[in-house]
């Protein structure tokens, strides 16, 4: 007889070291929100100081770059913590 594979349940979690799709969706939303916030602040500063694209471009770079850096750190942090656990001496 052929074995029937188990169906995934709602309680099933991703394997250790994997990132869930919901976490990735959250990172994308965070990335988009950070860029929008910093673009809005940059546009407001440009209108206030009459320096048209200067603060807007700075906002895009700061929002996008900062959010990308934080997303990268969050995605690579489980790998670093697992490698540290393996390096511990055993007694």
Can you walk me through this structure?
The chain has helices at about 20-50, 50-85. The chain has a domain at about 20-80. Helix 1 packs antiparallel against helix 2. The chain contains two helices and no strands. The relative contact order is 0.12. About 70% of the residues lie in helices and about 0% in strands. With about 90 residues, the chain is an all-alpha fold. The chain is elongated, with a radius of gyration of 21 Å.
Total strand segments:
0
| Uncertain spans | none
**Largest sheet properties:** none
Helicity range of the residues?
Answer: over 70%
Shape: elongated
- Described by its quaternary structure, the protein is single chain
Mean pLDDT: 82
Rg result: 21 Å
Quick description:
This protein has 91 residues and is mainly alpha-helical.
SSE topology:
Elements: H1 21-49, H2 52-86
Helix pairs in contact: 1-2
Question: Which key phrases capture this entry?
Answer:
2 helices, mainly alpha, 70% helix, 91 residues
């Amino acid at each position: 007889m052929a074995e029937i594979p188990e169906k995934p349940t709602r309680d099933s979690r991703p394997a250790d070291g994997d990132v869930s799709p919901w976490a990735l969706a959250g990172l994308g939303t965070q990335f988009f929100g950070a860029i929008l916030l910093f673009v809005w602040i940059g546009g407001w500063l440009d209108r206030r100081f009459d320096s048209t694209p200067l603060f807007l471009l700075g906002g895009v770079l700061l929002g996008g770059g900062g959010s990308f850096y934080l997303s990268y750190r969050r995605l690579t942090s489980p790998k670093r913590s697992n490698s540290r656990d393996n390096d511990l001496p055993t007694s």
